Amino acid sequence: MRCVIGQDTEMALRHPLRVALIDLLTTAGSVTANEAARRLGESSGACSFHLRQLERYGYVEPVAGAHGRARPWRLTTPPPAPKPAHGLGSLARELEDEGYHRWLARRHTAPERWRRDEAFSEVLHLTPDELAIVAAQINAVLAPYAARKRPRGSGPVGVVARVFPLIPEADE
């Protein structure tokens, strides 16, 4: 549901909060700047600013009939054209990697109850259809947590799942 076409549009997705807002709208459908701020742990002013920037680039729009400060936003319909592989995908991976490296360097400063992480890795032998099923199952597990209101005592947790075919080296 995202695109990166041309330099101006690519600029729209260079800010991590804009990427997070698009991801939130993908799962939530629509949110106000205040709701986005609460769910993302950001200020409502920052969310409002970046939602307007995403509107400028054609990624989001106000929900029809809504006005004022409590104006909900949604992804544009139809969504922008699919993005090239070198666009948001590489940016998202860099943000994921940056967040994970920050965690590794500073986890000793986290409250004791948060000083854990889980890492999973597996090489599977799947058909293309099975690959799609596994990806859908992972999304189905995560969706209820992404869509719910932020529970008391919760904090942001990065969940990274990459399901992709392993391509042999050129000389194999």
Notes on the structure:
InterPro entries: ArsR-like_HTH, HTH_ArsR_DNA-bd_dom, WH-like_DNA-bd_sf, WH_DNA-bd_sf. GO terms for molecular function: DNA-binding transcription factor activity. Residues 8-94 form the HTH arsR-type domain. Helix 3 crosses helix 4. A 3-stranded antiparallel beta sheet has the order 1-3-2. The chain is mainly α and 172 residues long. Helices cover 47% and strands 5% of the residues. The model is unreliable at 1-8 and 79-87 (pLDDT under 50). The chain has helices spanning 6-12, 16-28, 33-40, 44-56, 88-106, 128-147, and strands spanning 30-31, 60-62, 73-75. The chain folds into 2 domains: 16-75, Orthogonal Bundle (Arc Repressor Mutant, subunit A); 85-171, no CATH class. The two termini are 35 Å apart.
- Percent strand equals under 5%
Q: Provide mean pLDDT, rounded.
A: 78
Question: Radius of gyration in whole Å, from Cα?
Answer: 18 Å
Total beta strand runs: 3
| Main sheet: strand order | 1-3-2
Question: In percent, how helical is the residue content?
Answer: 40-55%
Q: Pairing-aware structural class of the strands and helices?
A: mainly alpha
Largest sheet: 3 strands, antiparallel
The low-confidence parts are: 1-8, 79-87
Shape: globular
Number of distinct helices = 6
Q: What is the element string, with H for helices and E for strands?
A: HHEHHEEHH
Domain tally: 2
Distance between the termini: 35 Å
GO molecular function, one term: DNA-binding transcription factor activity
InterPro entries: ArsR-like_HTH, HTH_ArsR_DNA-bd_dom, WH-like_DNA-bd_sf, WH_DNA-bd_sf
Domain HTH arsR-type: 8-94
Pfam family, one: HTH_20
